[in-house]
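Suppose you are handed a protein chain with no further information: no name, no annotation, nothing but its sequence. What can you learn? This example shows the usual starting point.
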Amino acid sequence: MTDPAAKTPRFSLTRRRLILGGSLIGGALVVGYVAANPMQVAGAVLQGGGADPDPSAFGPFIRIAADGWVTIVNKQQELGQGIHAGLAAIVAEELDADWDKVRVIDARSNFRAYGVQMTAGSNSIASNWDLMRNAGAAARSMFVGAAARRWDVPVAEIHVRDSVVSHPASNTAATFAELLAEASREKPLQSPVLKQVHDYRLIGSDRVRRKDNLPKSTGAQIYTQDVQRPNMLVAVVAHSPRFGGKLAQFDASDALSVKGVVDVFAIETGVAVLAETTVAAMQGRAALRAEWTDTNAETRSTDDLVQYFRDTAAGGTDVEPSEFQTMGEGYDSPFDGEVAEFSFDFPYLAHAPMETMDCVAEVNGWDVSITSGAHLATIDQVQSALTARTVPGKVDIEVLPSGGSFGRRGNMSSDYLVECVRIAKRVEGRPIKLMWTREDEMASGYYRPMSHHRVWVQLGSDGFPTRWRVHIVCQSLLPVGPNFTATEGIAHSPYFTTASTVDGKIFTPKFPVIVGFWRSVGHSHTAMVMEHVIDQLARRAGRDPADYRRVFYEKAADSRRLAVMEELCRKADWGKPLEAGWARGLAIHEAFGTVVGQVAEVRMMEERPVVRRVISVVDCGIPVSPDQITAQMEGGIGFGLSAALYGEVTLREGLVQEINFRHYPILRMNEMPAVETHIIPSVNKPTGMGEPGVAPIAPAVANAVLALTGRATERLPFLNRAARNSAGFSL
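A reasonable first move is to predict its three-dimensional structure. Written in structure tokens, the prediction is:
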């Protein structure tokens, strides 16, 4: 047995804590900011160049080694979006570092050093913009101060470029490496001077590209599924086949007879099977005999739920609505005159990332060690601490890149991490790798909620709305508070500007099916509703859809949408005829502070839309990495189009029917349209790009279908189950 006294206490005095300022150790200079005050330079700390990113008094975001290499500590999770390169470029720009000698490492979970670590809401660049600019500028000021002292010249005469500090007047220069020791002793400026946009040499250029292409291309990138630990066991869990079902009893004898299975036991979420290998664990689970009680389980089928949602929107159930937007006197009075009515049904959608849920955890007394692609590292720390009955500071999470997420790894319950910690606590002192199969991941829930929208619009003689009424039925993603994610993209829409009243109500039913954040969240359905309604209203008014929108945007003084639409119409040749059988569809939507316009070129083939080309225009503020913006737009369109064509999770008497890609098809390579992305120049603070490209593609396609056939789209996906089966995807 290990002697507890022989262990190093987590909060003991270490070399890093002892050395807080004056000398160079191991050739690494660390510069950063106190996370609670990103505008204030805290200073510099010297540390030994190891992998320990724990905070000192100086918040370590930048490391500069003796050979001149600059390492940026990335506190966000890299889950395929390329955020590491964007954040590093912000620092490198202000530091004037040589981009070819900049690398990135991922930060471990550490609230003291980095503040709240959450990669969500397309907010990584926006939330770190000021923080990283100031960190880079402060580090630059230290090298400038060191050079000025060495050469006995004014600071104002010092120039920095590509990691070289120079004094042009005396033709003197030194590299970061040569000045490192002296720079480490400089006190950084409290409020460093930041560059103006017109002075950027790196930000906004095509040089800012991903720095992880090589390991991902060669298979060298390590994901959680690749992690191996000495004496590690593999765990799988048998869950209830129905949402809300509970374990009644189980017989582990057959499972324990499988070679390699070492333990079988009940946990809060089901029955855990522990084995020496993944294969043995899965075979053991297959041999397990478990019985479940469905007393509080969801046993309805999808058709029943759809009808329940429709009845709820009509006021026919006991679900009480709340108002999400009201405007004008008498907003809830009956409509009169010409009224257009619209109805939309949206299904549950799975995340289906390539890497299924997985986690490695080890519990040793108060200490918990976790390795995982942690989307919300700070929340995961807290939830894991509660599970292990320790404090968050005793939970160390090694945050790895993940093979996709789309929101699945970012739920507030930290479900699969908590499950892994529960199992690890049972076998304390031994690392556990929890593995979920594709079927586990698909049937577990945390879906994009299904929803139903009913919209009534009273029209004036000019064909524009005079009154709006919107009823939305959607489960909430949050345990408490208003259901605002279901109304984002509709609330305060510019399309309400011609109306005298707006009556917006949200109905939030509660039942056992588990829902979670899905890429673009509520915008994934609200964009479809508003943009498709507007095209139908334009058609009723005999107006061109772009001209019709222009009236709303001008009345709302929405200069960003106007600029995006004008550029989009130019780039897409809007108004010019296409060859017979093809039509264009337009959609413009704002999500996470970013305005995206898309035009899709579509034809119908055997009652299914075929998209050959999508023209996109985006206003996302200062474009830090145009290459990544283009990639995010392409990825968002592929993701959104896949869901629009095929995405649907259905229940049959409470049992999930789509449990693998055979049943839940995704867009194939030959179905991916050509995508052109055009970025609106801007000097405004950057806004989100990970999700905004998803929302407009479905309404753009629906509006093209409307132009081709005259038929509105009232439900997604475009291809129902029968159509998917005829395309080769059978249940």
